[in-house]
Amino acid sequence: MNLPNFLTVLRVLSVPFFIYFLLQPSFTLRLTAFVLFALASLTDLVDGYLARKWNQQTEFGKFLDPLADKFLVLGAFITFLFLTEQAQLWMVFCIVGRDMMITALRYLGIKKGRSLRTSRFGKWKTAFQMFSIVVILTSFLMVSYADTSAINRLYEEARKQGIGSWDVAAANYSEYMAGNHPGFFYSIASFMPYYLMLVTTIVTILSGLRYLVTNYKLLLPPYTIKKQPAEG
Hints:
232 residues, mainly alpha, Four Helix Bundle (Hemerythrin (Met), subunit A), 2 domains, 9 helices
């Protein structure tokens, strides 16, 4: 257990605490969740740098590091479902589904003795996801718990009337641009999380399609490595 792996383990262990603090109505605890997410994201950069610099890359670290990132990011998006009506189930389903698909492709690659081909677009996707989470977390801090509830009721009432979230967010954005808003931060929080979730979902889907196109041969038979006959 070297220092880079220790930081990765800490990132995994921080996820349940981050989720718990974020779900609380207390501003202090939500701020704690924000700081915890920021520190956990920072360890993602530090552990990889230290592992390469000190030549301490291990199979355990290679296995756990991407999982730690997934736990942190998916934990945030799933928690948003319980905090804001602007995060919708189909969005989170697409984000989670993409990671499940990549995991399946990676498993097929192992079975075939081939590595999964990655691209820089995947790193951009992760960076944008992190950016979106930070901005949405900031929106939770900039408005009160009561204002967040009021925004959620706005989306709930619109849905009951058959009005889509896209229309609600667009109307809120139009009001903000026209200067007809009850408060700057309230107005931003009434449409920004929805648009960030929407763009993040689109980027995630495109990233998944890119992986499929690049690694489509992994889906073709045979699905296992043929064992060579033992020499007599």
